Amino acid sequence: MILMYSSNLKRAATIGISLLLFTAAGFSAKRPNIVFVFSDDHATQAISAYGGILAEAARTPHLDKLAEEGMRFTRCLVTNSICGPSRATILTGKYSHLNGFSVNEGTEFDSAQQTFPKLLRKAGYQTAIIGKWHLGSDPTGFDHWEVLPGQGSYYNPDFKTSKGATHETGYVTEIVTEKAKDWLSNQRDEDKPFMLMVQHKAPHRQWAPAIKYLNAFDDADLPEPDTLFDDYEGRGSAARDQDMTIDKTMDMGNDLKVEQLDITQRLTTNVLDRMTPEQKRAWRKAYGAKNKAFLEAKLEGDDLLRWKYQRYLKDYLRCIKSVDDSVGELKAYLKENDLEENTVFVYSSDQGFYLGEHGWFDKRFMFDESYRTPLIASWPEVIKPGSVNSDLVSNLDFAETFLDIAGVDVPSEMQGASLVGIMKGKRPSDWRASHYYHYYEYPGWHMVQRHEGVYDGRYKLMNFYDVEEWELYDMQTDPKEMKNQYNNPEYAEVVATMHGVLDSSRKQYQLPEIEKQSLENVNMWYHSTEIMKRLSPKPSSE
Ligand code: SGN
Ligand code: CA
């Protein structure tokens, strides 16, 4: 009794002091919590709230509900369309050249630098991250972290924590969701607001769905994008010479799960060898029958590509079903625990993805499908339900937005802008009129040329500088980006204006001069036997 009394007294005193502190610091007593659910490679084309050709066949009810309750951003643009770099930009509020993480391969995030979780924590927030991290060094700025090593595994994943490694049995999206709920139930300090990052591995390649969804979409015939059979006419060499087509780059075993044809080491090590006998049985049962029918059909040419598209897309969408469930479960948890009213719930992905547009999968290009990423946010009593915003916003803005939501000062070196004004329906008058992009990983996976560019909501200027090719697209007359207008005299004025925009963006964001890379290194990579098999030989650098 006495004990209880004194602990209540202590609690009351703590709350009193915190209230005083927060008021003195200009915070309201009830600073909002933040739940930031983040997935990997989730294209807007695969969220039914965004519409598009898949919206009827592949519904995402929980994400759609989030959009109904909050705001859906139709033009959230990434600074660099690739995993680690996107995450580093989100944490630091800075472009890749300033946060030091411009390519996935061989880079470690400098975890000593300033990040929004560190600032929130310093301001009294309890911070946690669960799921994919993919930044090399250990997470900093979190009271609690449990992350997947590297890319992580779909089945029976390992986790890295501050206390050492752990291993779980089950499907990664469900495990990450469970861990998030578990943290909320058992480790949350009720005297503090919290910021929880729930970061899914799905729907990343090789698109391994949960057992329960292995047969979803079996009977569907998914619509194909108009550009599935793109011949890259009318554009530069970068679109033609990549290594990311469904036709040539996807392999039968790893990507398309036809074990009978091609049992690749990546499928074995990353998926099959990790499974319990029961999981493996269910997997082989589901794919076995479908693969048999495929092998008997002996498809070739366009029919084979059409089949590959269906298999790829169905697996991708099956993975998303679990991500959508996760959003629903987390929302339900907040509601059941009286946390919904005071929690800002944000959903996004590290970048968009090609779902067969231009014949591609993967990302990296500044072309629309991988440049634009989903962003949906609900904030009861602040965001008007069902709002849709088409301003040029970016993952560069996330850090400042989270800090602003918490009432924390934004360091001047952050390069984005808070979205809170837009969320309140009051876009700041000086909102950006164009957005700057820069991709750096070449040579590398999928062989997308390095490029930078600017987009003003209508025109997109791109510079593939190592091959010295400029491209200009008019997104109003050519939303599918099929015709490079850079050398069309009718666009001369636009080209000149966009060059001016690019020059001033480079100054504004403190871009160093571009150094063209030596082709020696590039050719070594390009001529690797794997890539040579798929692509026509590249002319030598002499
Ligand atoms: C893996 C994938 C690539 C993908 C990169 C980067 N190959 O290497 O297709 O582009 O990750 O993705 S896989 O066969 O191993 O899946 S990122 O999202 O981490 O940037
Ligand atoms: Ca990614």
Give an overview of the whole structure.
It is a single chain. This protein is α/β, with parallel strands linked by helices. It has one domain: Alkaline Phosphatase, subunit A. It is built from 16 helices and 15 strands. Strands 1, 2, 3, 4, 5, 6, 7, 8, 9, 10 and 11 form an eleven-stranded mixed beta sheet that branches. Strands 12-13-14-15 form a four-stranded antiparallel beta sheet, covered by helices on one side. Strand 14 and strand 15 form a beta hairpin. Helix 2 packs across helix 10. The radius of gyration is 24 Å and the shape is globular. The N terminus is likely disordered. Bound molecules: 2-deoxy-6-O-sulfo-2-(sulfoamino)-alpha-D-glucopyranose and calcium ion. 2-deoxy-6-O-sulfo-2-(sulfoamino)-alpha-D-glucopyranose binds next to loops.
Give the tally of β-strands: 15
Q: Could you state the CATH homologous superfamily?
A: Alkaline Phosphatase, subunit A
CATH uppermost class: Alpha Beta
- Helix/strand/pairing class, anyone? alpha/beta
The percent range for strand residues is: 5-15%
Biggest beta-sheet profile: 11 strands, mixed
CATH architecture: 3-Layer(aba) Sandwich
Cα shape = globular
Chemical compounds bound to the protein: 2-deoxy-6-O-sulfo-2-(sulfoamino)-alpha-D-glucopyranose, calcium ion
Helix content: 25-40%
Structural domain tally: 1
Q: Summary?
A:
The chain is of the alpha/beta class and 542 residues long. The chain is 34% helix and 15% strand.
